[in-house]
Amino acid sequence: MPGLEDLYREIILDHYRTPRNRGELPTPPASVAQGHNPLCGDEITVYLQIDADTVTDVKVGGQGCSISQSSASMMSQRAALTVTRRTRRPKSKPTSATWKPCAAS
Is 45 a residue whose pLDDT tops 50? Predict the structure, then answer.
C-alpha cells in the first residue's frame, strides 16, 4: 500500500517539522514525567495540567529522532482532547526500561 505509507510518512514529517504543544508548564501545578532511551538517546518530557480528572493543558519537550518527536507531538494532541476519569497523575518517575529502541532518523 504505497499510498498509505506515503500518508503516514507525511503525517510523521508534518509533526516533526511543526510539533504541536511544544514547551513547558510550571510545576506545580502541572505534573511532569521524563523519559530517556539510552539505546538511541531520545529524550521526552511531558507536562500535564489536570483539573478535576480533566487534562486542561499539555506540553512536550525533548530531543531525538523524527519518529520519537512526532509521536510526542501526536500524543500531546490526543491528550489535549482528553476529558476522562481515567486520567491519573503519575505515581512515579518512568524509567528508561519503559522505553523501546527506535530507528535513528
Answer: yes
3-state secondary structure 40-79: CCCEEEEEEEEECCEEEEEEEEEECCHHHHHHHHHHHHHH
Q: What is the pLDDT of residue 92?
A: 55
Burial (0-12, 13-18, 19+ Cβ within 10 Å), 68 = buried
Q: Which CATH number fits domain 2-85: 3.30.70.120, 3.30.450.40, 3.90.1010.10, 3.40.50.2300?
A: 3.90.1010.10
Q: What is the pTM of this model?
A: 0.69
Q: Is 5 helix (H, G, I), strand (E, B) or coil?
A: helix
Question: 500518508: which residue's cell?
Answer: 7
